[in-house]
What does this fold into?
Amino acid sequence: QKKYTILIFGCVGVAACDLYYNMPGTFIVGELQRRGISASIGGLYIGGGGILSVPMVPLFPWLAGIMSATDMARISSAMFMIFSCVQGLANQLPNEGFIAVLMGPRLLEGLPLAVMETTAQVLMNTAFPVDELGNAMAILSTVRGSLIACSAPLGGNLYNAELLASLKKHPHVRRQSIAEFCGTMPGSTTYL
It folds into this structure.
């Protein structure tokens, strides 16, 4: 039925955005430090998308007057993918370009993320009768929460597998194991 299709696409769309949005949190600071860039930029990157997502939610009723919720879902998905792909090119640039290409699209990611989340909820509220709405929203929340919980470990593992970093381009950078890192901490007397 149509309502289950909406539930599936809502879960997939919002969960994919959440997964991608939260995945870099585990490695972005290390990637910045590896390049000799201040780690404080990492904090701005991690929370950057939220800056524009907050004012977007109150603007949703205005957007709903201009286009349908399904059009908003399609457009916001496409925008999110474009902003995400552009960030993927950042590793190919020197530090100045790296920061600009990484941070600009990250800040803009908040716009489609907020629209996507709000649109999924609006579509589900429209598609499900009141007596089934609680279960549908619980499914959406469970899928989102599960993927958010998995996104940080997944991002860290992909980074460690060198699938999300261009470490091979920088042979002078030597990666430390956990034991080496802990052994270099102030006050440490033993290695793991």
About this structure: DSSP finds seven helices and no strands in the chain. The radius of gyration is 20 Å. The helical segments are 2-22, 28-34, 40-66, 69-88, 95-127, 130-160, 178-183.
